[in-house]
Design goal:
133 residues; mainly alpha; two-stranded antiparallel sheet; 2 strands; ESAT-6-like_sf
Length: 133
């Protein structure tokens, strides 16, 4: 999809559905990798037990560490989920862009000249239709 007028020197805006799908896959991949890293971090910390001890300074550290650890782990898990949702949103945007381009071309009588694009290899099998995720 492009807008702008090259003759007038106005800026041009171009969306390429195949590139959006590619970036969507990257966001999904990073989200999965972050989720794995968070799981490994939590397992590693759990294996340590309570290395700070039960004395006064250790107890003070434990009191501060507990809530901070929960907030950090929860935030990282949430971030990994949101990255995957950004990827799904990019897939949806790619589909809508391709549909809009095809519709616009059909409206100008060029429908037969715009062949449908083949499915992008590795694209998500289902893409949400609601971009508010």
């Amino acid at each position: 999809m492009a807008s702008g007028d090259k003759a007038s020197g106005a800026p041009e805006f171009v969306l390429k559905p195949w590139e959006l799908h590619g970036e969507g896959r990257e966001f999904e991949k990073v989200g999965r990798e972050l989720a794995k890293a968070v799981g490994a971090l939590e397992r590693g910390l759990a294996a340590l037990g309570a290395p700070w001890g039960t004395d006064g300074p250790g107890g003070a550290f434990a009191a501060a560490w507990g809530p901070a650890h929960g907030e950090l782990a929860g935030g990282l898990r949430g971030l990994s989920t949101r990255l995957g949702q950004v990827g799904a949103g990019l897939h949806a945007m790619a589909g809508r862009t391709a549909d809009a381009d095809t519709s616009a071309a059909t409206g100008f009588g060029a429908g037969a000249a715009v062949p449908p694009r083949p499915a992008t290899p590795g694209a998500a099998p289902t893409v949400p239709t609601d971009m508010s995720v």
